[in-house]
Design a protein that fits this description.
Blueprint (H helix, E strand, L loop, with lengths): L4 H31 L9 E3 L3 H12 L4 H15 L9 E7 L5 E6 L33 H12 L4 H14 L1 E2 L2 H7 L2 H8 L2 H4 L16 E2 L2 H13 L2 H4 L2 H12 L6 H5 L4 E4 L1 E5 L2 E5 L6 H12 L10 H21 L20 H10 L24 E6 L5 E7 L8 E3 L4 E3 L17 E5 L10 H6 L2 H11 E4 L10 E4 L5 E7 L4 H13 L5 H6 L3 E3 L5 E3 L5 H9 L13 E8 L2 E6 L8 E2 L1
Antiparallel strand pairs: 1-9, 1-21, 2-3, 2-10, 3-6, 4-5, 7-8, 8-15, 9-10, 11-12, 13-14, 15-16, 16-19, 17-18, 19-20
Helix pairs in contact: 2-3, 3-4, 3-5, 5-9, 13-14, 13-18, 14-20
This protein binds 2-acetamido-2-deoxy-beta-D-glucopyranose (3 copies).
Length: about 600
Amino acid sequence: MAKHRPWLVCCFVLVGLICAVAVICLCIASLVDRGCSSGSFKRAAVAADSKRCSDIGRKMLQDGGSAVDGAIAALLCTSVVNPQSMGIGGGSIFTIRNATGHVKVYNFRETVPQSFKANLLKDCPTTFTFSTGSQWIGVPGEVRGYEAVHKQYGKLPWAKLFEPTIRLAREGVPVSSFLGKLLNYNIVKNYVENSPLCSLQVFCNENKTVLSVGDIVKFPKLAETMETIAEQGADAFYTGKIGHDLIQDIQAAGGTLKMEDLKSFKVRVQDTWRVSLGNTQMHIPPPPAGGALLAFILKLMKEFSLTSNSLHGDQKIQMYHHYIEALKFANGQKRSISDPTCNNIKSADHLIDPSFINLIREKISSNRTHDYSYYNNIKPSPDHVGTTHVSVLDEDGLAVSATSTINQLFGGMIYSPQTGIILNNELVDFCGRADTVRAGKVSDINADFHPKPIEFKTLLIVDIQSLFSLIWSLIVVIGEQPPSSMTPVILESESGGLLVIGGSGGSMITTAVALSIINHMWLGMNLEDAIAAPIVFVDSQNNVNFDTGFDKSVRNGLNRLGHKVGNWKYFMNVVNAVEKKNGCIVAVSDKRKMGMSSGY
Ligand SMILES: *[C@@H]1O[C@H](CO)[C@@H](O)[C@H](O)[C@H]1NC(C)=O
Ligand SMILES: *[C@@H]1O[C@H](CO)[C@@H](O)[C@H](O)[C@H]1NC(C)=O
Ligand SMILES: *[C@@H]1O[C@H](CO)[C@@H](O)[C@H](O)[C@H]1NC(C)=O
């Protein structure tokens, strides 16, 4: 017996050990499982404006596509599901983080054409309105941009990204409850019914009244256009027949765009600005994007050491008071956002400079607000609404935060009948935020261009036009981009968490995204609640406007501190975000636009 004992002990110890390891493993597994709440995803997710488009994005990812493939497909889908928000007649900003943490911005927002209406800014509205008219059309960058990001990060064939949307455009999409409601708002209804969008029967019935929820809207011309782009690539749009037809239609509508504007459009590939918010690093797109304003507000709010306690009683009033003061200062800084390639001074750097943040922090009084002039606000810029955002994270860890726009609702309501494209009215963004508009600036000799040697004999018979196009191809033209509120960002926490977030809603983007981040990161709300929480919007007159459902007692407290309440009615702010934390992915599409995310 005694001889067997050590063997038995050994056996027990071994079995015990195996059991212990198994129990620990089970515990960890169940903990991890419990950590991933229901409704979260394990591998990848897309948060677009609508369930239909989030699903199309997810399908691309499941078929082996990258987050960039998913984002492009979801945006193309959005151009027919929410055609008021974006389309291939507009432009986008993509912030892309690869799996090893390198972040790049692909900026292909619209630019000022070579020639544009004299004294354009004299046409600027002074109050909230839809700016219709062909003078506001900027050079569309959308398709060139898709080409650039797809070339760098795409895994699926280019044409595949277009397939689902071509089908939707051809077979028709039911008007969503969101779009149906929007079309039937009096102000929108009037504009649409008096625009080519109606007379050409895109969004109207035969009797020339706007469509309603559930009506089927088809885009047969756009389907053809997308099919050509899918088959022939972006050049079909920028140098080929689509471009020629589009320019013809724009000129027929009185616009100034020329083929040369399309041919010379360049996507800007930029480094992000890296902004630290405590232990979190935020990557923002540089000016003329709106990232610097968002970073300014968040860095300022970081000074107030917010916690979940800030959501109670007087502390809540104080928090919103400080936040509103920060927004007033941000309004005063809007004019420092401009296109650095056309304005030699880098005039927005100070917005993320700690000494400037301190200076402004000291100017915020806890017990009062101030007059308009206190905030360096010279002239209010007109507020407006529009745009869309999609956040995507794929299995390989590629993250895409993409904001896309044709500016205001249906752009400037200019429709190209030959191509089915709705044109942007992006140049309105200069209004109130700039004193001048610069035409495309002819810059250095194009370093990428290696002309073939031309024989003297050939040169003699070359006609003037091809000589011009040769000279043209030797130079790079950089058109000015208007200042923007668009701010697709990516945040990285110290523990490796990622938050891919951005928003739409024109002037309301900044506050919608800032509050979602504050609510989630500092006040402890989950991502869904953080985005759903009622926002406060400080309009360009520095009046404070409250989203439906905003806490009444806080409102009263803010009134006591002297804030003037405005009468803003259009809370069209929409935030879409994807977060990965501890191996779980949460994706939220804003309910304000009746959106829904999708993942697996
Ligand atoms: C991320 O980008 C950097 C810089 O371009 C590159 O060196 C690195 O290999 C990329 N990582 C992945 C996983 O593609
Ligand atoms: C226009 O047509 C639609 C659909 O056919 C119909 O619902 C609507 O009542 C009509 N409006 C007028 C003013 O006739
Ligand atoms: C606000 O606080 C400052 C400094 O604490 C004080 O001097 C000032 O009188 C207060 N103002 C009001 C309106 O209570």
